[in-house]
Write a structure and sequence with these properties.
One of its GO terms (molecular function) is glycerate kinase activity. Belongs to the glycerate kinase type-1 family. InterPro entries: Glyc_kinase_flavodox-like_fold, Glycerate_kinase, Glycerate_kinase_RE-like, Glycerate_kinase_sf. The structure is a single chain. By secondary structure, the protein is α/β, with parallel strands linked by helices. The chain folds into two domains: 135 residues, Glycerate kinase, domain 1 (Rossmann fold); 207 residues, Glycerate kinase, domain 2. It is globular. A six-stranded mixed β-sheet has the order 3-4-5-6-7-8, sandwiched between helices. The longest helix has 22 residues.
Length: 363
């Protein structure tokens, strides 16, 4: 009987972290039914963050009316954790309200997509007496520098501008779960790096970048300081910048924050294998993404680490980085639409882990 730790990120648009891990557990138990399996739903601040952090911290979920990136009415959720000290922490996953998955390919217009809904969630959490916030900045459809979020707060607090409402935020403590290193503007900024995947063409990227630069210059004159070049300012289309510049948010690595919250290192005693993964594994996996953070922790304890993914490239680099095996769950030439089917994906995760463990045990 072996001991396995499952810490697998969501397969975006297909399976949540918990769903991937449930399939992985079935695959392991098909070979070793008495295996000790510790399953940890995880997220680095992007899609699946709310579920993962709530599971780790034992929070409740609040469902509220707000607006999506196109300002259409929707219902979105955030978590509330009652901490030991009696204060409340809100867990906000921005993808819940302004996520790219909420806007079809045909509807995407990054020039009008707004972060307004994030401001609505922050306001609602404040009305529930939350004074601490953990905000995950992954997977947004927006590139408005957080202006929409600020406008929502101004509107909800019935102010004319931010100066008229800023006292409301004086006692807030905001942590931004983010592994994006990019500044707000410039060649490595939000518009140039992330704009195209949100539907922006070359001219729109240039316009968005000019907007961001102008907004940062105006904000710096108002506050007397400038957060636009700080690490993470370009996250979520510049929402990271607004949260730092206007609400004094502090960026922490989403990976490290998640692993510390679940006391990951304490779960590694007597573990045979750590199994991690994500939807697509390639050289970018090694640039601070969740599976690499998990690999780094496991290797400190000399624990073998397996990486699974729906798509795999740069396999040699991944193995050279320390993964003991890199497994693609999908057969070659499987149609992408079929591969993205949740039932198919779960079945393939299960089959992949069963095959791998049988091969390991036969050695």
């Amino acid at each position: 009987m072996g001991k396995f730790v499952l810490a697998i990120d969501s397969f975006k648009g297909c399976l949540s972290s918990a769903e991937v891990e449930l399939a992985a557990e079935r695959g392991i138990r098909a070979v070793d039914e008495k295996a000790e399996i510790v399953s940890i739903p995880v997220s680095d601040g992007g899609e699946g963050m709310l579920e993962a952090f709530n599971a780790a911290l034992g929070g409740s979920v609040r469902r509220v009316s707000c607006h999506d990136p196109m300002m259409r009415p929707i219902m979105a959720e955030y978590g509330i954790i009652v901490q030991a000290g009696g204060y409340k922490t809100a867990i906000i996953e921005v993808a819940q309200v302004i996520g790219l998955s909420l806007v079809s390919q045909q509807e995407r217009n990054v020039l009008i997509a707004t972060s307004y809904g994030v401001g609505e969630l922050i306001y609602d959490a404040m009305q529930q007496e939350c004074t601490h916030f953990i905000i995950g900045l992954g997977g947004s459809a927006t590139s408005d520098c957080g202006i929409g979020m600020l406008r929502a707060l101004i509107n909800r607090f019935h102010g004319k501008d931010f100066n008229g409402i800023k006292e409301h935020f004086r006692n807030l403590h905001i942590t931004l779960a983010c592994d994006v290193q990019n500044p707000l503007y410039g060649e490595k900024g939000a518009a140039y790096v992330f704009g195209p995947q949100k539907g922006a063409d070359e001219q729109q990227v240039q316009l968005l970048d000019r907007r961001a630069r102008t907004f940062a210059e105006m904000s710096a004159k108002y506050f007397g300081y400038d957060c636009s070049m700080q690490i993470g300012a370009g996250a979520a289309g510049g929402l990271g910048y607004a949260l730092m510049q206007y609400l004094d948010g502090k960026v922490l690595s989403g990976v490290e924050l998640m692993l510390n919250l679940v006391a990951f290192d304490e779960l590694l005693d007597n573990v045979s294998y750590v199994i991690t993964g994500e939807g697509k594994a390639d050289r970018q996996t090694l640039m601070g993404k969740l599976p690499f953070g998990i690999l780094s922790r496991a290797k400190r304890r000399q624990i073998r680490t397996i990486l699974i993914a729906g798509q795999v490239s740069d396999q040699e680099q991944l193995l050279a980085a320390g993964f003991d095996a890199v497994l693609c769950i999908n057969p070659v030439n499987l149609d992408i639409k079929q591969a993205m089917n949740p039932v198919t994906a779960a079945t393939n995760v299960e089959k992949t882990l069963t095959k791998w463990l049988r091969e390991v045990q036969s050695l």
